Amino acid sequence: MEFELAQLIAANVAFVGSHFAMSHPLRAPMVGALGERGFQLVYIVVSIATLYWVSTAFKAAPAADLPGSGQAGWIIATFLTLPAMILFAGSLFGNPALPTPMADQQARAKPSGVFKVTRHPMMWGFALWAVSHITLWWSWRTTITALAIAILALVGAHLQDRKKERLMGEAWEQWEAKTSYWPHWGALLSAGWLPWGLGLVFFALFSWLHLPLGGIAAGVWRWL
Questions:
Q1: Which whole number is the average pLDDT over 82-92?
Q2: Which candidate, 74, 95, 158, 195, has a CA 20 to 30 Å from the CA of 173?
Q3: CB-based contact 114:85 (threshold 8 Å)
């Protein structure tokens, strides 16, 4: 058991650490040595390889070696997952953090939808999803991997601000002045029909898939 968990920790450290390293301090020298396409290829290969290591180490670790937080934990996890899905759904539209030709224009626009909550809705969505799994206190393998995802999301969002300031300059500085790293949760209610509608679809779909893929009923399906 100790070996399996140590391997899982090492895999998660490799996945998160390589992502941070290649996205920030190593990006410029790697692009200089390999070119942009070469860098992207190495980035993808390393990300897939370390993620595969996480997956295999996760499967090898014990499945239910913690007592769990009971019904209360499942209720809390379900309520955390809903805003996570809404934030994630809304982040797919009009997001200047995504590498698109419209990023500069989007950063100069007035924040709308989930961007009134935070300028990093995708990252906070991942973080909430991770915390929902930690709340269940189901197994060490879930807790370790979810913690790694939360760190990757929230520390990554902070580092992304610094990178975007260098790459986008004044446009991103304007975006930072109009938005917040820390979520203003009250603004989620006025995020609009698209994030809420698509978020509810994601919430229902992914929680339903939890049983056939993970073997455990989750979300509202746990009580239906």
A1: 98
A2: 195
A3: no
pLDDT at 1: 65
Mean residue pLDDT across the chain = 95
pLDDT band at 2 (very low <50, low <70, confident <90, very high): confident
Specify the pTM.
0.94
Read off the pLDDT of each residue in 210-221 and give the average, rounded to a whole number: 92
d(CA 112, CA 65): 43
